[in-house]
Design brief:
The protein has about 350 residues and is an alpha/beta fold. About 45% of the residues lie in helices and about 10% in strands. The radius of gyration is 24 Å and the shape is elongated.
C-alpha cells in the first residue's frame, strides 16, 4: 500500500494552515509560549510579548507529561480557557498537547492545533482520535524514534483523512550527555527529500540551556526547516516546570530579529494576504457584473464609469497621504485586467449560455 506521508514521486509540498499562518509556505513561522500555562497573568503577558516579537502561534501546556510523578501536571481545562482567551486577545492561533484520547475533544474545542508530545508519538489510538478531529496536528518526534518510525506515526493521522500535519524535530536520545537530547538537524533535509509534510524544529528542551537556543534556531533555519517552536517565560527561574530551556522576553525578541522574523514583517505579510483576498473578492464581483453586461448587450468598456471610479480612488489616496498618481496607476492595471477577463469570458462561456 502507498504510504501517504511519503512523496511517492510528487514534488508538491503540503501547506498546513493554522489560523492565518501557513506552515510550508510562510517564511519561518514561529510557535512560542510557555511550557505550561500557570495563571491568567502569566499567559496574557507571554501572549502579548510573543505577539509583539513576531510569533505566529501561541503555545502553552495545560496537560503536562514528565518523567517525575511529582512535576507540575498542568492546569487542565481551566488552562485551556486561559490559553484560548489569551490567543484571541492578541490575535494568535493556539496549540497545546492532548495526552490521552479522552482529552482530545476537550482540547480540540479550545485550540487551533493539537500537539502530540514526543512520549505519545507511538500512542496509535491517540493519533487516530486526534486525526479524526480534522484539526492541524503538530507531531513531535519521539526521543528514540527513527525518521521512518516518525513518518509511520504520521500515517495514523493521515489514515483518518487528515493531512494537516506539521512534523516537529525536538531532539533524540544519544550517548551524548552535554545536552538533554541531540537535536537531529540532519533529519530536516532527509524529510524534505522523502516527505511532502512541513517540518519545524523545537530546540528548547534538547538544548538544556537557554543560551544554546539561538544558535540551534539559526541552524534550523539554515538547513531548511519550515519554522520554529520555542518556550518563552517572563521568569524562567521561577517557572513551575523545568527552567533551563525557557527563554526570557528579551531573548525571544533578539532571536526573532536574528531570524529576520519581526513584528513589522509579520504584520506586513498579513496585510499583503488581506490585499490578495480583497482583490479576489473584487474579481468575483467584476465577473458577475460582466455577465450582466453581456446578458443586456452592454459593452465591456464603459469609460465614464472607469473615470468616476478613478476619481474616487485619487480622492481616497489623498485622504490617506498616498500619491494619487501612483495609486491611480495601480488601479488602471486592475481595471485593464478586469476588462480582459470579461472579454475572455464573453467570447467563451457567456456567449454559449
Amino acid at each position: 500500500m502507498e504510504r501517504r506521508a511519503l512523496r511517492n514521486g510528487s514534488t508538491t509540498n503540503t501547506i498546513v494552515e493554522v489560523g492565518l499562518t501557513r506552515f510550508g509556505q510562510d517564511p519561518f513561522p514561529t510557535i512560542a509560549g510557555p511550557r505550561a500555562v500557570e495563571s491568567e497573568e502569566q499567559i496574557r503577558a507571554i501572549a502579548e510579548a510573543v505577539s509583539e516579537g513576531g510569533a505566529a502561534v501561541l503555545r502553552g501546556g495545560v496537560f503536562e507529561s514528565s518523567a517525575s510523578p511529582y512535576a507540575f501536571p498542568g492546569l487542565g481545562e481551566p488552562g485551556l480557557r486561559l490559553l484560548r482567551d489569551a490567543g484571541a486577545e492578541f490575535g494568535l492561533p493556539t496549540v497545546t498537547k492532548a495526552l490521552e484520547p479522552k482529552d482530545v475533544d476537550l482540547v480540540a474545542s479550545h485550540v487551533d492545533m493539537i500537539h502530540v508530545d514526543p512520549r505519545s508519538m507511538q500512542n496509535f489510538e491517540l493519533l487516530r482520535v486526534i486525526g479524526q478531529t480534522g484539526k492541524p496536528v503538530l507531531l513531535e518526534r519521539g526521543g528514540s524514534a527513527t525518521v521512518d518510525e516518525w513518518l509511520w506515526a504520521a500515517e495514523y493521522v493521515l489514515a483518518e483523512d487528515n493531512d494537516r500535519i506539521v512534523l516537529c524535530e525536538g531532539g533524540i536520545r544519544t550517548f551524548e550527555h552535554s545536552t538533554r537530547a541531540t537535536l537531529d538537524l540532519s533529519s530536516i533535509p532527509v524529510l524534505k527529500e522523502t516527505s511532502h509534510l512541513p517540518v519545524i524544529v523545537a530546540p528548547s528542551a534538547a538544548a538544556g540551556s537557554r543560551t544554546r537556543i539561538r544558535p540551534l534556531a539559526l541552524a534550523a533555519q539554515g538547513v531548511g526547516a519550515d519554522g520554529l517552536m520555542v518556550e518563552v517565560h517572563p521568569d524562567p527561574m521561577g517557572a513551575r516546570t523545568e527552567v533551563s530551556h525557557q527563554i526570557t522576553f528579551e531573548m525571544f525578541t533578539d532571536l526573532m530579529d536574528a531570524l529576520g522574523v519581526n513584528r513589522v514583517r509579520h504584520n506586513i505579510d498579513l496585510i499583503n494576504r488581506d490585499l490578495v483576498r480583497l482583490l479576489a473578492r473584487r474579481h468575483r464581483m467584476v465577473m458577475r457584473i460582466g455577465q450582466l453586461k453581456a446578458e443586456r448587450g452592454m459593452p465591456v468598456h464603459v469609460p465614464e464609469r472607469e473615470e468616476e471610479l478613478l476619481a474616487i480612488v485619487r480622492q481616497e489616496a489623498e485622504r490617506h497621504g498616498l500619491d494619487p498618481a501612483e495609486v491611480e496607476r495601480i488601479f488602471e492595471l486592475i481595471l485593464a485586467q478586469a476588462r480582459e477577463k470579461q472579454r475572455q469570458e464573453r467570447a467563451g462561456s457567456w456567449s454559449q449560455a
